[in-house]
Design a protein that fits this description.
By secondary structure, this protein is α/β, with parallel strands linked by helices. It has 3 domains: 165 residues, 3-Layer(aba) Sandwich (Rossmann fold), CATH 3.40.50; 92 residues, Helicase, Ruva Protein, domain 3 (Orthogonal Bundle); 42 residues, Orthogonal Bundle (Arc Repressor Mutant, subunit A). It has a 5-stranded parallel β-sheet. A hairpin with an 8-residue loop joins strand 6 and strand 7. The longest helix is centred in the middle third of the chain and has 16 residues. It is elongated and about 85 Å long. The structure holds adenosine-5'-triphosphate (ATP) and magnesium ion. Adenosine-5'-triphosphate binds next to helix 2 and helix 10.
């Protein structure tokens, strides 16, 4: 996991200290922050690193399939069940079961899951016996499970079971120091992937990346760099290779989640230039219309655009 900021170092430290001991753990964080990567890291640092890693996306199955997928079934349990099938929980024996997007799990499924997690036993569909399993469970979610409990969309017992230990993955806007390192890492990876000569990020483009608030977090940064590498031709990623909405003047002062300013302030000339770019975008690129909307002459508009600040 790339990153040398304090929040990242703290998180990696917590992963290392939890990994040997946890039985059940929940990873919480906004979309694209790196929850799946963190889950893999926990497994890799755990004593069952060489055991199975079984991943289940709770958002992708219906109530009925959930039971079959997780618990398995025995031959004859239903028409079409021609042979026994091991469920994912049993398959994770002596390893890790990763329950991704746990907040999406339907309530019926939650009831069955919490029982299995508490007893560490699985009873396949149609079986008269239960099997003991020795599993570690890592769940991940971008939902606020506590308020889901209040709204009765998440079971309280499952919530308490999962949240005994938690790992919070910080949003990218709270670890902006990592942006240059992450961006350069992605540039290198995409340059290789697209068979391009190694690209660099210009100082102004990097400044824009540092200032943006990244609602899609590391995934959004990765995608931005991917398309910028594709678009740039002369070995340098410039502002024009970044999406217009990431250059918006609303991000002209850097804010973190607490709403306090960071140390990466834009000059007034840069803010002006970005605002003009937004207006230009809105009027379809016409400098005459943009100048009219901004109540300045075309000459002044050109001057502002060329002012490097
Ligand atoms: N610290 C990091 N270093 C390098 N790459 C990272 C880092 N964090 C996230 N990524 C990359 O960002 C992308 C999103 O990460 P991941 O899938 O782990 O996020 P997530 O929190 O699980 O997202 P979602 O909530 O949408 O499931 C992946 O391509 C991952 O490789
Ligand atoms: Mg994920």
């Amino acid at each position: 996991m790339t990153g040398t900021s304090l929040p990242m170092l703290n998180m990696v430290g917590r992963i290392k200290s939890l990994a040997p001991h946890y039985r059940t753990l929940v990873i919480v964080g906004e979309t694209g922050t790196g929850k799946n990567l963190a889950a893999h890291a926990i497994h890799n640092f755990s004593p069952v690193a060489r055991g199975p890693w079984i991943e289940y996306d709770c958002a992708s199955f219906s109530n009925k399939l959930f039971e079959i997928e997780l618990f398995g079934y025995v031959r004859g349990a239903f028409s079409g069940a021609l042979r026994d099938r091991v469920g994912l929980i049993a398959a994770a024996d002596k390893g890790t079961l990763f329950l991704d997007e746990i907040g999406e799990l339907p309530l019926v499924a939650q009831a069955k899951l919490v029982r299995a997690l508490q007893t560490r036993e699985v009873r396949p569909v149609g079986a008269t016996w239960s099997k003991q399993v020795d599993i570690r469970v890592v769940a991940a979610t971008k939902c606020d499970l506590r308020s889901m409990v209040v709204n009765k969309t998440f079971r309280e017992d499952l919530y308490y079971h999962l949240s005994m230990l938690d790992l919070k993955v910080p949003p990218l806007r709270d670890r902006r120091e990592d942006i240059p390192l992450l961006a350069n890492t992605f540039v290198e990876a995409f340059s290789k992937q697209f068979n391009k000569t190694e690209q660099n990020i210009s100082a102004r483009a990097m400044q824009a990346l540092c200032n943006y608030h990244w609602p899609g977090n590391v995934r959004e940064l990765e995608n931005t760099i991917g398309s910028a590498v594709l678009m740039s031709n002369d070995g340098m990623i410039e502002l024009e290779h970044l999406p217009a909405h990431q250059l918006g003047s609303q991000n002209s002062t850097v804010q973190n989640s607490e709403g306090t300013s960071g140390n990466c302030l834009l000059s007034l000339a840069e803010v002006t230039r970005r605002h003009i770019q937004i207006v230009l975008e809105e009027v379809g690129g016409s400098k005459t219309q943009a100048a009219h909307a901004l109540k300045i002459s075309r000459a002044t508009l050109y001057r502002y655009l060329n002012d490097s600040g």
